[in-house]
């Protein structure tokens, strides 16, 4: 046990150092390169330059912060969803939760774009609230069709999630086609997973959800471990399986919806990060959850830097960069899960 704890601390430290390195590279490189000395002087307000303030505080830093928060949220939520379903192929995107939150936010863009322009908390929180509503709707539909003989069937869950995700994706496409040209372009870029329009208001809108719900998931690590034993075994230990599952699923949906509201539908982070964490630290969720979150942070921050620099001046959506890696990895996992 002490050896596992020491290994976990080492892995977490290495991961944090890699995140710091990715943040440094993303802050100092781009269309307008800035030296590390200028970055430090700007952040510490030592003879600040208007140009450096604009690049760092208005463009790069909000984008990096959102990328890190989204990566952490999707990573930890993906680990929880895989634990709830006991299915290594489950993640928020594949289960349709991303699509549900995305459809609700496209509906928000379609009906209310430009109407919530103030700085009140309601204006800031409107999109995450719409995303949460869509995520809950998708989860309710998944539960409705995947519920079998009083339990949630993990095998049906994947098939139902894919079907519902496809249907809600069609709803998003239909609404986006009804928009005017400018709103359609914004919705299309957003649906592919992009954080190009990041700002501090978006951070203020999503941060409360992560602060409130992430500790809930981390505290339930032991319950997730018990859920891997099977429902009958868990019930014999006095655990209310359905109550705990609903608690964990709703918390995960809240986090995913907040992430989708500011970044669009970025897939595969919630699939890959938990698998990488389990390969590095084992299956104990008290180690897997924090590692999944930090691995997700590293993935999205690095992918966002690649997306904005590889084809300068053209910028790719970060969701496409992650999908280039995620799709082959998903097929690899699918082949490993195939019965002999």
UniProtKB/TrEMBL annotation:
GO BP annotations, alphabetical order: siderophore-iron import into cell
Subcellular localization, as worded in the UniProt entry: Cell membrane
Keywords, sorted A to Z: Cell membrane, Membrane, Transmembrane, Transmembrane helix, Transport
Membrane-crossing segments per the record: 12-32, 61-81, 93-112, 124-145, 157-177, 197-218, 247-275, 287-307, 314-334
Membrane topology reported for the UniProt record: Multi-pass membrane protein
CDD domains from the UniProt entry: TM_ABC_iron-siderophores_like
Main location per the UniProt record: membrane
GO molecular function: transmembrane transporter activity
GO cellular component, one term: plasma membrane
Family to which the UniProt record says this protein belongs: Belongs to the binding-protein-dependent transport system permease family. FecCD subfamily.
Protein name: Iron ABC transporter permease
């Amino acid at each position: 046990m002490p050896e596992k704890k020491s290994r976990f601390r080492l892995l977490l430290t290495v991961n944090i150092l890699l995140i710091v390195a990715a943040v440094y590279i993303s802050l100092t490189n781009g269309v307008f390169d800035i030296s590390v000395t200028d970055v430090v002087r700007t952040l510490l307000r030592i003879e600040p330059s208007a140009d450096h303030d604009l690049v760092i505080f208005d463009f790069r830093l909000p984008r990096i912060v959102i990328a890190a928060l989204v990566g952490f949220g999707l990573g930890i939520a993906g680990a929880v969803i895989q634990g709830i379903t006991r299915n290594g192929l489950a993640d928020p995107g594949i289960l349709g939760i991303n699509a549900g939150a995305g459809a609700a936010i496209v509906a928000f863009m379609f009906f209310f774009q430009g109407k919530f322009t103030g700085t009140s908390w309601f204006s800031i929180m409107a999109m995450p609230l719409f995303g949460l509503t869509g995520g809950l709707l998708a989860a309710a539909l998944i539960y409705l069709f995947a519920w079998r003989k009083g339990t949630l069937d993990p095998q049906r869950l994947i098939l139902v999630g894919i079907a519902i995700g496809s249907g809600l994706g069609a709803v998003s496409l239909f609404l986006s086609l009804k928009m005017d040209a400018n709103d359609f372009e914004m919705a299309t870029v957003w649906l592919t997973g992009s954080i190009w329009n990041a700002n501090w208001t978006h951070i203020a809108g999503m941060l409360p959800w992560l602060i409130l719900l992430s500790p809930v998931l981390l505290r339930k690590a032991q319950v997730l471990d018990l859920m891997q034993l099977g429902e009958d075994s868990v019930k014999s230990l006095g655990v209310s399986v359905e109550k705990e599952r609903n608690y964990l699923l709703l918390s995960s949906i809240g986090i995913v919806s907040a992430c989708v509201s500011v970044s669009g539908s970025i897939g595969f982070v919630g699939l890959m990060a938990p698998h990488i964490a389990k390969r590095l630290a084992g299956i104990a969720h008290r180690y897997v959850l924090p590692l999944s979150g930090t691995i997700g942070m590293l993935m999205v921050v690095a992918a966002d830097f690649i997306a904005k620099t590889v084809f300068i001046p053209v910028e790719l959506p970060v969701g496409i960069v992650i999908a280039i890696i995620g799709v082959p990895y998903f097929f690899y996992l699918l082949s490993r899960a195939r019965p002999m």
